Amino acid sequence: xxxxxxxxxxxxxxxxxxxxxxxxxxxxxxxxxxxxxxxxxxxxxxxxxxxxxxxxxxxxxxxxxxxxxxxxxxxxxxxxxxxxxxxxxxxxxxxxxxxxxxxxxxxxxxxxxxxxxxxxxxxxxxxxxxxxxxxxxxxxxxxxxxxxxxxxxxxxxxxxxxxxxxxxxxxxxxxxxxxxxxxxxxxxxxxxxxxxxxxxxxxxxxxxxxxxxxxxxxxxxxxxxxxxxxxxxxxxxxxxxxxxxxxxxxxxxxxxxxxxxxxxxxxxxxxxxxxxxxxxxxxxxxxxxxxxxxxxxxxxxxxxxxxxxxxxxxxxxxxxxxxxxxxxxxxxxxxxxxxxxxxxxxxxxxxxxxxxxxxxxxxxxxxxxxxxxxxx
Length: 376
What we know:
- The chain has nine helices and 17 strands.
- By secondary structure, it is an alpha/beta fold.
């Protein structure tokens, strides 16, 4: 881990020098222009993480990895007179994020590659290049806030709760948070669009957003797995659908192609709605059950990253989110070695191993980790 960085003010600006991650979208562009107008010495950088043409999909590149986005980012930099670079991190991204994505599905879990990428790839790449370029800070267009409190840098929710991204940034360490600027944390998305319009970027102010995984832009993760895992279909096709009591009720198309809570696309008729309640990779088995069988009151979380505090007091109350769009549920956090056992006040639906669990105290992120299993 890098030591906490004490910013040294650049002689060329009144606020310091900042490396801004620019995807070409509205949020990162407005971030760069806001900081530029506030007196920071801005350096723009666009990271190429994935070449979709090599994945075998049927769509063109979308989101953060297409030429139009690169050109949009560069044009904004040219318009305002600050430098812009393109950084190719496809090799390090692919080796780590994509291998993990595949491995997690093969282990019967549901990964969250954006969390992994933010934590281990993008911010590490930004800090490395910020150091090389003599930048005091890094900045992104994420909707979050960071403040210093009790010698720690605390991540908290944005003003616009519909856009808040604290859930996907729980893995950032103190070295990253101490040097990160998030100018959009205090704005609503509608206000950011108006700022882009006022700055003369009318087309950008109306630009649609992409919520796809960058290396699966057609949202077909099953197709991605088939194309990238040699012989996958032969290895997993034809496993059993079973009920909780062990009764075999049909054949499935391969356990990696299902997720906890899934109802649609099962291609099985039992006379009532059924859901995926468990995935057992060792036997290529997918367990089906009724909706109430998805309700659980406890879960085990590992791989913790502490943010607000050094440690979590045993029995601490927190609001725990188990997915990005989850409102969160009141819970008690209990220490279990290096893990946390979460006890919910009320049962929660579809706890999926491999997804992130993030603990909140008010708007502040206490810590986050990876869900290992849910239970009652």
